[in-house]
Each structure stands twice: as structure tokens, then as C-alpha cells.
Design a protein that fits this description.
This protein is an alpha+beta fold and about 70 residues long. It is about 15% helix and about 25% strand. The N and C termini lie far apart (about 50 Å). It holds the Pfam family DUF397.
Length: about 70
């Protein structure tokens, strides 16, 4: 049986990591068909399929999730 690799998280390029304020988003894409996103504060993560992640990114690019004041 082949072992499933652990997620290898990397920090978002938009993060300005600061030890006094370590709020960053980390993403892992090293497992085929899966994407994981976690908080650098809590370590909690959520997993998406590749299709779900692509739909999210596409929606974000066109403003689907913009907050309206």
C-alpha cells in the first residue's frame, strides 16, 4: 500500500508574516486532486477537491466573494 503524503503547506505570497501578528493563510497543493487551506494561528485546515478550489479561485477573480458595505 502506498502512503498518502502529508500536506506540505506554503504561506500565501500576500502574507506579510510578522512574529507579533502571525495571521496568514497557508495552502497545500502537493496531493493529487486535493487542496488544503489552513490558518497559521489555529492550525485548523479545510480540504477541497481540485474542482472546488478552481471554482473558488475563478469566483474570487471576478469578485464573487467581495464584501459589500
Amino acid at each position: 500500500m502506498t502512503a498518502i503524503p502529508e500536506f506540505e503547506f506554503r504561506t500565501s505570497t500576500k502574507c506579510s508574516y510578522d512574529n507579533s501578528d502571525p495571521r496568514c493563510v497557508e495552502v497545500a497543493t502537493n496531493r493529487p486532486g486535493k487542496v488544503a487551506v489552513r490558518s497559521s494561528i489555529t492550525g485548523k485546515s479545510v480540504e477541497f477537491t481540485s474542482d472546488e478550489w478552481t471554482a473558488f479561485i475563478d469566483g474570487a477573480k471576478v469578485g464573487e466573494f467581495d464584501i459589500k458595505a
